[in-house]
Each structure stands twice: as C-alpha cells, then as structure tokens.
Amino acid sequence: MEISELRSVYLRFFAKRGHAVIASASLIPEDDPSVLFTSAGMHPLVPYLLGQPHPEGRRLTNVQKCIRTTDIEDVGDTTHLTFFEMLGNWSLGDYWKKEAITWSYEFLTSKKWLGFNPDKLSVTVFAGDDDSPQDKEAAKVWQSVGIPKERIYFLGKEDNWWIAGNSGPCGPCTEMFIEVDEIPKCGPDCRPGCNCGHFVEVWNDVFMMYNKNEDGTYTPLKQQSIDTGMGVERTAAMLQGVPSVFDTEAFVPILDYIRNLSPKEEFTETDERLARIIADHVRSAIMIMADDRQIGPSNVEQGYIVRRLLRKSIHSADRLGIEKGFMIGITDIMIEMFKDIYKEVERNRKFVIDNLEAEEEKFRQTLSKALRRFDKILNDTGTITGQDAFLLFTSFGLPLEMTRDLAEENGIVINMKEFTKQFEEHREISRTATQGKFKGGLADHSEEITRLHTATHLLQAALRKVLGDEVTQNGSNITNDRLRFDFTFSRKLTSEEVEQVERLVNDIISKDLPVEHYFMPYDEAIGKGALAFFKENYGEEVSVYQVGSFSMELCGGPHVEHTGVLGSFKIAKQEKIGAGVMRIKAVLESAS
Ligand code: SER
C-alpha cells in the first residue's frame, strides 16, 4: 500500500465511525511558546483535550505534520526520522478504551483495511505505579479482541505513559508492535520497546485522564479523552515489506537523486548512512521553512534547528563529493510529493530556495576553511586532540559532532574531557571579563540582584505570551533596585497589556514555583523550547533555568530557588529606544 492510500484509508475508516476529518496544523505551534515544534498530533489539540469544545465535535481524525529532534542521532537507522507524518483519531470526552482498542485492532488486522497478520501483533500496556494503577482494562480489551496474554506486555512510565513536555494532559497508553521476521530477536528478553528492530512500533493509543501540574502532581481531567498516533512512514514500510522507512516512496526518489549527484561509483555503508541523513535533514528543513510562518536558518529557536539540519546535510553532501546546489533538486522532488497534501511547500518555494542557497554559500566557505585546518592538524601532529576540536569549534565554527565524525573516520577518538575542560576554562574567562564589564551582570550575586534576575526571566516569558513570539531579548541590565529589559517590539504596550504582563508574572510569583536548574546539550535545550541569548558564547553543554512550563532560558544564573520570594512585580516605565526596540524598567516592591 502506498503512503497516499494509507493516509486516505485511515481517514476513511475513522470518518465512517463518526470522526470529522480536520487539516494538519502548522509545524510551528501557534499559541505555545514552550515548545519549538508540533511534535505529535496532540499538540494543536491540547486545549480541546483539556475540555474546550472543538468546533468540529467530539470525534476527530487527521494527518499531522510533525518534527521531533530528540531522536536526531538515530537518523539513518531503519525507523527514525526528524520530520514525519502522524495519523490520529481523537475522542474528546466521547468513546474510551474499548472502542479505541477495538478499532485499532480492526484497522490493523482486517483484510478490508491494513491486513497485518494478527499473529505478528504484540501490544504493551501500563504496568502501574504510585501515580496511576495498572491498566487492566486495556489488557482485558486486547484479550477480548484476540491478543493472547503472552503478547501483552506490562511496562512502566518510560514506555507506556504519554505526556508532551513537562506538564499538561497525559495518561497511560497502549502501543502496538508488528514483528519483523527478517530481523531476529535480540535475545531471550527481546520485547516490544527493546529497540533491536524485531518489534516495530506502529501505533500508540493514549488514554488521557490526568493533568500533570507544574509541581509534578496529577489531577484527574474533567473529561477522559483518546489521543492516538500512527507513524505514516514506518507503517508504510511495514505494509510494503521493505526494510526501512528509507525504502518507501517518501525517500526513494530523494535518495536516488543524491546517489546520482555523487561521483562515487559504489556507496559504502557509511555513504548510505550519509545519504539517509541528507535526505531526512533536508526534508525536515524544507518542511519547516515551507510552513507559512517562513522560518529560515538563524541562531535562535526554530531557525537554529533549521541551521543545524542544513549544516549537517551540507557537510554530509561534501563528504559524498556532492557539489553546491543539491538541495534545490530535493525541494522540487518534495513539491511533487506533497503537492496534493501540503500545498505550502510549492507556495513557499522561492523563500525555501533563497534560504537554502544563502545558507549553503555561507557554510561551504566556513566548512572548507575548517576542513583544511583539520587536515593540517592531523598531518602535523598525527591526531586531533580535545583542544584541537575546541579550536575548530570556536575559531572555525565546525560543530563538535562534525569534528567527531571526521576524527572517527581517521580512527581517532576525541578526548571529550579535554574538550570540556577547554570549554569550561573559556567560559570562566568570559565570565571574569563579564564581571569586570557589567556591574549587576551575572557575576553579581547580591540577593536583590538575584531576585530581579529571576523576575527578568518571568518578564520575558510574560511579554512573549501577551505580545507574541516576535518578542526577543535585546539586552538586560540589573541594578540593586530595578531591572531593565530591552526587547524587539515595535510599539509601546497599552495599559491593558502592561496589566496583563504584570498579572502573569505576579501569578507565577504567587504560585511559589521552584526555579529548576539543569545542564543539557545546547540542541536539547533549544529543542525543548529554551530561549537563548548571546548564543555564540555557548558550547555543547548549557546551563538552563526553568520555571514550570512558563519560562525556560539558557542562562548562567544565579536565580532564586522559589518564585514566592520575589514579592510584587511592577512595570515602572517603558520607552521606545530604537526602531523596533522597546525598553521596560520594572521593580519588585516587597519580598514576602
Ligand atoms: N501523542 C501520542 C504519540 O505521539 C499518540 O498520538 O505517540
């Protein structure tokens, strides 16, 4: 079965069962600054899962464009992709487990629909823990439709619980796996979710029944809902009996095109993997850029992900001997592929092509300089040290992962400790320099300044919620008695907007939320929606401060431990300080 048919039979199956067919939402979440991309079909439907009535009713079905960067390192294997499409059916306080599971089983196994062999179907259900009991009900329904006990696996939260992000609607889920005979079991403990490739997950039915609060507790939802997700490319690969998603028609034309452009006669396994990475990454970057929000490569947020995807692709293409301009042809293949379903790809062709060309031009120059330096170091010294990797990173813009790949090919393992040490030292130097330069900067740890510093994060988050995502930090300065925050925005705030911002901040203060601090890789932080300022100073591991789902920023600190100590937040003054730049001064009136 072809992908276009899979999409249409799925929608038909659920339309016949009373579901309204709704369009895919944008890849860039409209009202949720806490995430960068729509990474699951449920994202755009969160308000309705929480109880708001949906204009199309209580039963919906759709094909949703998704971007997930969490699995980016796995791209090139048989199933992982950064852009994919997800089929979903939704019950908003309507049907529950019995119908959801019975329909999933019928759709997967009936000869009238997908016709998978029922003997090859295994399922997982939630094993239970202190937050929620074992899902005996789901297991019972699976047994009633004919899945024997030994093919029903009880697993914990890491496998059988779904939540998007840290808080919001969530609940236990049941996942469906098809066994692939060609890939042998990895051992006696081989089971769904073990990731050896023998069991391939095709569908996930989530039983949304709780809201996870910002303090980590769970409250039962007013209505119980069903959220299901079936990966289009994976399911198509299984239906077509091909070994990977890259062997479906979503990728074959792109990979053929890449192979043709390369002067290499034979592709090694590494070359094949590079070709898959190019195909996946360029496809994702094009889909993000072609979304009507028109996001091009940049150093912040979604644009940063586009840049990383493109740079990795350009580097991979370079290694296959593919010359400049290769991404234009991929765009045209994708326009052809998606012209009936995602018309925006064709509509935004010019924007996409212009950005692809500019990014490639810029990065090829840096890349060739960096590669020349890499070769020289290797020739002169016979190795690449952690210090060399650091130099290539800071002076030539060669991302660490690329240096690591190149070194590996030469049989060299980069000493990461050494790299990190260099990086830490560098950070210490910049920190000391900052201390001298800006009083009230990050190095000044007085209590007042710490409180105002946390208030600045809350202010930025609140401004973005009230005025929109175009608000980004332009500068910040803190003295003992006030914060000053400059941001991109073209006009003064109205008095209602000022009030709204103050209310949002004071609300978070009165909730006394913990201010959490983590270290994580830059990509992961950006992928989780962290705001980044002064991006060029950051290395691989970054320091992130988070306040519930309200605010998340890359920042060296320090911050208060709980928002409750901030007192009362008040905007004291606002002024326009340049074209498109506003300045706010704010104070904390009295600490509780
Ligand atoms: N939200 C669940 C998932 O993405 C089901 O759609 O797997």
Description of the structure:
This protein has helices spanning 3-16, 46-49, 97-109, 136-145, 157-160, 232-240, 252-261, 269-290, 301-319, 326-338, 344-347, 349-381, 386-396, 400-409, 416-437, 447-467, 495-510, 522-527, and strands at 20-22, 59-67, 83-92, 121-126, 152-155, 161-163, 168-179, 199-212, 218-231, 473-478, 483-488, 515-521, 541-547, 551-554, 569-578, 581-588. The protein has 592 residues and is α+β, with helices and mostly antiparallel strands. Helix 7 (252-261) packs antiparallel against helix 10 (326-338). The chain folds into four domains: 3-247, BirA Bifunctional Protein, domain 2 (2-Layer Sandwich); 260-378; 382-438, no CATH class; 447-589, Threonyl-tRNA Synthetase, Chain A, domain 2, CATH 3.30.980.10. The chain starts with a helix and ends with a strand. The chain has 18 helices and 16 strands. The longest helix is centred in the middle third of the chain and has 33 residues, at 349-381. The site of serine has 10 residues, from strand 8 and strand 9.
Task: Summarize this structure briefly.
Helices cover 41% and strands 21% of the residues. With 592 residues, it is α+β, with helices and mostly antiparallel strands. Helix 7 runs antiparallel to helix 10, helix 8 (269-290) packs antiparallel against helix 9 and helix 16 (447-467) packs across helix 17 (495-510).
